[in-house]
Amino acid sequence: xxxxxxSGGGLVQAGGSLRLSCAASGSIFSIGAMGWxxxxxxxxxxxxxxxxxxxxxxxxxxxxxRFTISRDNAKNTVYLQMNSLKPEDTAVYYCNAYAWVVxxxxxxxxxxxxxxxxxx
Length: 120
Known about the structure:
This protein is mainly β and about 120 residues long. The protein is built from no helices and 11 strands.
């Protein structure tokens, strides 16, 4: 199994910054793409940013130029640097990883989520 533990959420004023971290642990053989998703109350979970094991990135249009995703493969950790935050960025942010576990098939794994609240 793979455990994803997120940290770094909190309350920030509009225009501020936060940095989210997500560390993967467990019987990991390999990790492919890692990413961040978010879900606001009453809305579906949407992709925010994805990064492949090779470092290629993809962002939602709403965060391009403000958010930066990065990863440390040696630490099995993915980060999301969020700048120029807006109230509409308020949501629970979830970490995702597509991983191969020793003795099991590969699949998606999810973290427990971390709340990000941006006040106006």
